[in-house]
Write a structure and sequence with these properties.
Blueprint lengths: L3 H22 L6 H33 L7 H25 L3 H33 L2 H13 L7 H14 L5
Helix pairs in contact: 1-2, 1-4, 1-6, 2-3, 2-4, 2-5, 2-6, 3-4
Amino acid sequence: MTDPFEVLEHEHRLISQVLEALEKAVDREMPADFYKRAVEFIEVYATRYHHAKEEDILYRYLMDHGMPRDYGPLGIVLEEHDYGDEYVERMRTQLADGDLPGVVETVREWVVLLKRHVETEEDLLLPMGRAMLTEEEIGEVAARFDEVPPPEPSLEHWEELGRGLESEVGAPA
């Protein structure tokens, strides 16, 4: 059985690589295409694929065990998912409008939010979740994670895109 908490931590590392690349990109003159690919990565890999595992599977188990949805660590991260979606929508609109300075400013704000968000999940929510669930329930979560379809065109494509964005800005591999 693959540990679902380790799966999420692995995905957080890749998302964090993209965040680091974006954090460096805002201080350099990166083309709009760089930001378009980063937004696409976030929309497909982070939001549709990764958040589906968190929101639709793990967090539901935690709520079934009495973790409140509207406040505390779970309430915070769910609210941050919503805020993050708003930032990504703003970036997509700015890119479509050719507003690269606006994109850069939005990226600056969004990176701060997401770095804090990943820390909250890694340092608080995931350890709390591991402590709340039985081994059997962790196995159920793992099985449900395995049912989440990989993002199109492939998981490898998105992982390579994430690493590629990092290398474009000269971030360590």
